[in-house]
Amino acid sequence: MDYMEIDRANGRAMDEMREVALTREVLKHALGSCLVEFGDTRVLCAATIEEGVPGWRRASRAGWVTAEYAMLPASTGRRVPRERASRKGRSMEIERLIGRSLRTVTNLRALGEYTVTVDCDVIQADGGTRTAAVTGAWVALHDALMAWVEAGKIARLPLTGQVAAVSMGVVDGCELLDLDYREDSRAEVDMNLVATDTGEIVEIQGTGERTPFDRQRLGRLLDMGDKGIEKLIGLQNQVTAFRDED
Amino acid sequence: MDYMEIDRANGRAMDEMREVALTREVLKHALGSCLVEFGDTRVLCAATIEEGVPGWRRASRAGWVTAEYAMLPASTGRRVPRERASRKGRSMEIERLIGRSLRTVTNLRALGEYTVTVDCDVIQADGGTRTAAVTGAWVALHDALMAWVEAGKIARLPLTGQVAAVSMGVVDGCELLDLDYREDSRAEVDMNLVATDTGEIVEIQGTGERTPFDRQRLGRLLDMGDKGIEKLIGLQNQVTAFRDED
Amino acid sequence: MDYMEIDRANGRAMDEMREVALTREVLKHALGSCLVEFGDTRVLCAATIEEGVPGWRRASRAGWVTAEYAMLPASTGRRVPRERASRKGRSMEIERLIGRSLRTVTNLRALGEYTVTVDCDVIQADGGTRTAAVTGAWVALHDALMAWVEAGKIARLPLTGQVAAVSMGVVDGCELLDLDYREDSRAEVDMNLVATDTGEIVEIQGTGERTPFDRQRLGRLLDMGDKGIEKLIGLQNQVTAFRDED
Amino acid sequence: MDYMEIDRANGRAMDEMREVALTREVLKHALGSCLVEFGDTRVLCAATIEEGVPGWRRASRAGWVTAEYAMLPASTGRRVPRERASRKGRSMEIERLIGRSLRTVTNLRALGEYTVTVDCDVIQADGGTRTAAVTGAWVALHDALMAWVEAGKIARLPLTGQVAAVSMGVVDGCELLDLDYREDSRAEVDMNLVATDTGEIVEIQGTGERTPFDRQRLGRLLDMGDKGIEKLIGLQNQVTAFRDED
Amino acid sequence: MDYMEIDRANGRAMDEMREVALTREVLKHALGSCLVEFGDTRVLCAATIEEGVPGWRRASRAGWVTAEYAMLPASTGRRVPRERASRKGRSMEIERLIGRSLRTVTNLRALGEYTVTVDCDVIQADGGTRTAAVTGAWVALHDALMAWVEAGKIARLPLTGQVAAVSMGVVDGCELLDLDYREDSRAEVDMNLVATDTGEIVEIQGTGERTPFDRQRLGRLLDMGDKGIEKLIGLQNQVTAFRDED
Amino acid sequence: MDYMEIDRANGRAMDEMREVALTREVLKHALGSCLVEFGDTRVLCAATIEEGVPGWRRASRAGWVTAEYAMLPASTGRRVPRERASRKGRSMEIERLIGRSLRTVTNLRALGEYTVTVDCDVIQADGGTRTAAVTGAWVALHDALMAWVEAGKIARLPLTGQVAAVSMGVVDGCELLDLDYREDSRAEVDMNLVATDTGEIVEIQGTGERTPFDRQRLGRLLDMGDKGIEKLIGLQNQVTAFRDED
Known about the structure:
By secondary structure, chain A is α+β, with helices and mostly antiparallel strands.
């Protein structure tokens, strides 16, 4: 089969990521913070650490890592109301995804009875906010844990690896990496891949609500995803020098 | 690699589904209803149709299919409180999944300006409640739409196919189909597959929170899933004679 | 005065109950469970026991019995929304009634510091859901307490008697026992009687919103109610052998 | 059987009501208002009329009468929190009772498409707040409707009769009329009677949570209740001259 | 500049307060209570004392004084719904203002670990409910603390002074003291002054949403306010004899 | 009296503002946006315009300007939970203040039936977030209205002036302008001044919860405030050239 192609903004190739930037230490009060940009998508990730763990975790003597996700009302083209009296299922799905992803690479026993909360606030949205959030949240988590080590609260960095995320999808029959909002809103297939620095899958979520897809297409989309993950892992390493810490 | 094996309840093979039963017409008032059983997991699915569509759908002149999911408090070993003031992210994820799955095989334009709500209430939980729910919900949806055709409200059945779901996972390194609660609660990898009667993927959700997994394992789990889907599609057809309707 | 008569479904007499069925052990995880049927009305009652009592009961050193009541959305002819953000007064009244009724025949001191919750979920509604719920809830409570005795948690069954409930009403001037939905929805007088196995009144609730009634009518309705209660108490005894336990 | 007697505050007889006072026109803005006092129990009842009816009443072309009930935090010995995020079942039961009672004597068709809301705010509580509320609410309702007639909004007073309420109970085996808080809090049987000026029963609610009761006791309690109702109906008439209006 | 004048109800002068009345001991159960009237504005203030302080105050070993403010639905010309699921910003501002004002003149250390709650319920509203509430709340607070001293719970009255409040505003260019509702609703400038018995400012809130104002006008309005405060302080002293206690 | 002095961070004078920066056009999707910085306090202000006005404004045929205020959880030293189920009184006070301030300088009739919402999200908090928010919100409002003019939606800029805000306070007896968090948290007197470009007062809020203050001190604090307002008005003009538009 011939791979189909469509025109993408800025002449991007089908399997090319947008410009990605990870800026650390953007907040004075947070232990760890990172402004992550995937093109025009900008998410502010901030990690704070509190003593103790949620009630249901207490028996475990281990720590906990959780995440919150929200969009600023003016982050999108049409103002989104704040989630107050009731939560949106979408936001809850995303914050659960971020939390699971971060816990996969955290040694909760080594962390000890602390709770790390990583707040991911979308400043500007242009598709891929959840994948940007996972990628930036790892940097904020890393920096907060590093600060905790430096403060002598824990003996060593309780991170077993890196985790990053990227989206893939199908638009007009064409398989794409890292969709922007215009692409995402008319995609037939929509997929998110969270993976570690060893290339293993932490989370895969794919939906073909408009067009179910077969195993071959799944394979090609994952190949693309692997490329994106590799690039993001490299960037994380560049700003944190995580691998050099080992 | 040698496939690993563990002992399963009732001597089930690794890639064998539990006993599945689909019982139709279990409720007097609902247009369509189905009690679905995957082993000890029992979910009551009921479809009702109301005039009109949600506000944001109105411009489309098409119909809408949505789902609600809840567990009866006594459905599990430890009583689960009802979700009242606040919803659980897990339940909202599941009802969004059921809704998307059903819409994939529904021709919303042919349905016209009606809203179908499929309520999936877990009477007894033993793992796989969401996959059982999708599978039973399709039967309830089918029957409700059939009743609507018979009532002359719509000209023909607005269903383009069948949809069913099954879970796969990894326990002690062993790949399994259709996990029960005991297996599910200690799985390293947890995956759900929703697919159509043509074998195409509608939704894939896999998480390796405890143990990330590679592409080979993903492939083997999906092979198992295909087997399960095929069996469920067959059973749905048996009770509804959907394919004979064509 | 001549007693007036109307035609009832299935040729029922004015003072005749519908078919009543009490099916025990319908749920795997609940300590006690009972599916109660009053004609087409079906309520699933499940009793679970948890350690401890609500804060305001703590000083008493005694136990607590409470109930929750909910209707499945598809249990009625017109889908009823789940009670989430706000509760309905009707449901709260019913669950308070069930709780009071069960406590009347429970020795809370002998129970000790445990809380029994009896969940009454209406699977199908055709009038009399609250009276069916009280009647079935007693069976679920009995079985849960029995299991607690068998588990050695309490020395003996802390039940001092049985409790059952039935409805009476006036339709087109005609006095009726155990109204179904069609009758109930146009009743001039609507009454519920909860009574013990010794025939004493635990609770009487009568409302003549459309037509106030006099003492003579109250007397005749209570006579009918006594007949219904007697039958229900007999059935409870048949399935639980409670009186033989003494 | 010998009637038993206990000592009551102020040397009250067993079947004697407390001092009752009905003061009209206590609020400047409300169409109708009444401060009702049953001994130390004081409830401020205020009726307001708004155009239109609730959505579900619209097809009927008739009006609606509803009530709200609340206790001021300092109305009792121990401060009661305001009901904000969640309602108490008790309050909802009471406001439903008041609403039903008032509607029994209102000709909703003659009222036309208006909604009357009677707010019953307990200024001071000493037992019997719900029966005082029903009794005073009728006066407020009467006055508001009268004002509506005078304003030419409706042709004639759409009231078909009067309605009042009183409590009865059993304390230490002794049957009492109009219990104060000290009596009510240790009553074995607790009963409320709402009745019309013709002596017919609008509502009876009796509960023997601590001690079930028999038909003879029910009869004697209702005899007492009739006496109380008669007195209250007389007082209502005295302040409103309702019967003279006929 | 010539001072402008407008016609006020009852021929009041521009800098004249309405009739003010402070009636103590209006509630049987509250430790301290005061019905405050500023013309037709009537607010019932009741102070109750509970053991302990809010969690965030615990380390301080000092007490706490807080207030709640609500309007009865029928207190205004157009029925106001009760604040249940969501609070109004206006009410929260007012109760925060009352609390701060009372705390300014309370020695929280001398109070010890008790929480005083002053409930201010508006029975009838005609402008100036918040200033009436502050003024009456101080009397209720005084009486509750006095009762606490008499009960031997605290050694001496932990009040360092008196606090009262009054409103000022500009209507049609004319500067007014103590605005009633008709004046308030069309005021260009709206100001509230809370001050102590020594004439010092506890709180000043002024808003010129319709017409910003200059420093000269602010000065003249404060001069008027001082006059009002002096009168209110005098009345408080008259009913409580606070200054004689010293 | 000798003015007292304390040491301030960065050697600031008592009546000197922190570094102020106003950066426009920081968000791609918002019609108007401004990142405002008062030292380390950073607030992101974004204005969006929607068709129509709130229901209660409809009769007026005029537009509406409103504001929302929130703090990002990691904006402060100790993580602040998001306001979801319940709002904080403080936040509601602040957003009401911002809305009133902006409306004072907006010609709502000239705006026409549009609603402008200015979201003020605190990225980093170091005292004075509400005054920074008012100051930045005006710039965002200006830019959004300007865009609306350019889009031909309204004929001319419906702004009648500028509005800015600054805080003053007393710390250790010393009067200060523009308090940072360290100063604010131990201030005896805390005041906020909102004023226009003509120097008139739009809003004054002063509280002496710990130490009531006299008229002389009020005067000196307002003098300081005037200096701050003048500087902020100048900066707003510099970035928007508002006065040149006239």
